Amino acid sequence: MLKYVKTLNSMGLKARPLGDWEFEVLTPKERVAETLSYLKGSGFETFIHLMCVDWIDDGEFELVYNVESYGEAIQALVKTRIPREKPSMMTMMNLWGLCQVYEREIHEFFGIKFEGNPNLEQFFLENWMDLPPLRKDFDTKEFSEELFGFKEDESHGIKAPERIEYK
Amino acid sequence: MELRPLNVSSTNKRKRYELFIGPNHPGISGNFSYVLEMEGHKVADVTPDPGLLHRGFEKLMERRLWTQNLALVPRICVPEPDVNEVAYCMAIEHLAGIEVPKHAQYIRVMVLELARIASFLFGFGGVGGTTGLYTAPNWAIGDRDYILDLFEWLTGGRVYHIYQYPGGVKNDIPDGWLEKLSDLLDYLESRLPEYDNLIFRNPIIRDRLKKVGYLSAEDAIENGITGPNLRASGVNWDIRKTQPYLVYDELDFEVPITGNGDSYARALQRRLELEESIKILRQCIDQIPDGPYKVKIPNPFEFRVPAGSYYSKVESSRGEFGYYVVSNGDVKPYRVYIRGPSYSSGLYYAKKAMNGMRIEDVPVWIHMMDICPPDFDR
What we know:
The structure holds 2 protein chains of 2 kinds.
Chain A: H1 2-10, E1 14-17, E2 22-27, H2 32-41, E3 46-55, E4 60-69, E5 74-83, E6 88-90, H3 99-110, E7 113-115, H4 140-148
Parallel strand pairs in A: 2-5, 6-7
Antiparallel strand pairs in A: 1-2, 3-4, 4-5
Chain B: E1 16-21, E2 33-39, E3 42-49, H1 57-61, H2 82-96, H3 102-131, H4 135-155, E4 164-165, E5 168-169, H5 177-200, H6 203-209, H7 217-222, H8 228-232, H9 239-242, H10 263-287, E6 308-315, E7 320-327, E8 335-339, H11 343-353, H12 361-368
Antiparallel strand pairs in B: 1-2, 2-3, 4-5, 6-7, 7-8
């Protein structure tokens, strides 16, 4: 594992081990394809997952590509940050066709546009007009109150227990 | 009069039509649907239609305390809920730097392996259900119930156990439980020859499953297929061996590789792995050390996990089950991502695999790949 960390660091990327079989690489958006194709060429042939974190305070989305090498039994997490305003990213479908479904899911739940992905239609949701639901500024309580018209006390005579704020 | 050749329509016109497999269909494994574009009796195109089961777990988990989520995570997977609890706890423990006592680690391995056997037995039911051999589901689900009885005794719950906790497990093993487990393993082992005769030596099942849905090793690696399906294609990869977690490195077991890559190989792979799980459980009964079953974590209402992110994974009965947990140092998780093992096969690889497949093989393929809709509808 250390040899990959070393090589990636010499490529000008920030890499460090996270555990016995896991290391992370921080790359700028433009160098994701380069990093992933380097890793794929060195044996990281299996694409495990692509996920997204909404860092709303930083105004950024973080994308995490997880690839695994069966030969050497190590896993690499390639992380990149993209701005939250009009987010877009290039597709990695030319490396792994599998990225298609992951990118489609992230487009639906975070609103990130993946350039080059032919099918970014709705996947899990149906007729969704609101904010993408896994974004941090999407308020589930407000949404359900608006959608279902439920008001505590007034119309139903139900008093919901007081919410405990753990802080 | 001459008989017309098999499976050829009497008209030359090939009509295309749409056929729904699921969400309410005996051939599907959950609340999920494949929309098949059919050409005669062959599948021309497939559109997976997920979302019928989506419960927004990942969003819900951001609103609850670290420990409250333990009641939520097992609901993600019905046939094998314990992998969720263990993977989630392992991620928390890694971030918070909690060392789990040996005794608790052995209990975790036993729970995981029992759940694995239960899930494999569920899978035997799938073999019978899709091929019309209805004795198999009756036997397998009946035998699985004995495992659920043991779970009920240990944890209080039959299907969802909510038994793991950051730092260990919630209760110690009750008196007499290990002896009962040993009896159950004897019973399950005595049943294996009967399952072999009923399912795996059955010429009809062999003919139905062989050469259906062939998956080569390269395709399996390329398409993110993990677990028994990967090993059935001939790749020697088991997280319990290659990146051992808990106490798997202290246990002696083998990883069977069938390697033919068809549906029969995938079914047989599960049958062989079941035997290894029994072997692991026997060793756990002999080797389990005395000691505390948990380390205490601080007040759960104030339990803060240090900022950071970690991907923890467990070898489940369907493949790599992973939890990517992000913490910003708060009392609640900042983001949790769940990597279900059949996400890639069910949503992406299905399109390639089912192309040109005959309609009667579609349910067989779904069940032998162990497509579990909760893996993608999280």
